[in-house]
């Protein structure tokens, strides 16, 4: 009988999936000193997700995302923000600037920040990488 109860509980838990309380939030960290401020670019070549190292509050309706990328002379970033009542999901996309496609670029890591607007004040919502569930 216990085996059947355990089996039923396991199936129900798997079927229900996770909720927003099971999501690991990104760490809220102070803005890195000396970080390069990037502006959002929607025209990036070969845009791909890059790791977000943390975030900080930049106002009631803005957050600053912290990451590493290439030099701003050759590389740019953009962000996708998805908001729910409980969470703000963010993805930073990095890629080559169109004007730098045929240019020699040095390959060094640059600590960067990108401020993104929110539709509603952050309040007590959590910030997560990717779309919130």
UniProtKB/TrEMBL annotation:
PROSITE patterns: PROKAR_LIPOPROTEIN. Residues 1-20 form the signal peptide. Keywords: Signal. It comes from the Bacteria. This is Lipoprotein. It comes from Rhodococcus coprophilus.
């Amino acid at each position: 009988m216990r085996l059947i109860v355990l089996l039923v509980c396991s199936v129900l838990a798997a079927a229900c999936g996770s909720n927003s309380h099971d999501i690991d939030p990104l760490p809220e960290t102070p803005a890195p000193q000396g970080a390069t401020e990037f502006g959002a670019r929607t025209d990036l070549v070969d845009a791909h997700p890059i790791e977000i190292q943390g975030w900080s509050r930049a106002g009631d309706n803005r957050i600053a995302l912290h990451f590493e990328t290439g030099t701003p002379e050759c590389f740019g970033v953009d962000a996708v923000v998805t908001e729910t009542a409980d969470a703000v999901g963010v993805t930073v996309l990095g890629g080559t600037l169109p004007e730098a496609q045929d240019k020699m670029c040095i390959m060094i890591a640059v600590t960067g920040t990108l401020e993104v607007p929110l539709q509603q004040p952050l309040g007590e919502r959590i910030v997560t990488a990717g779309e919130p569930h």
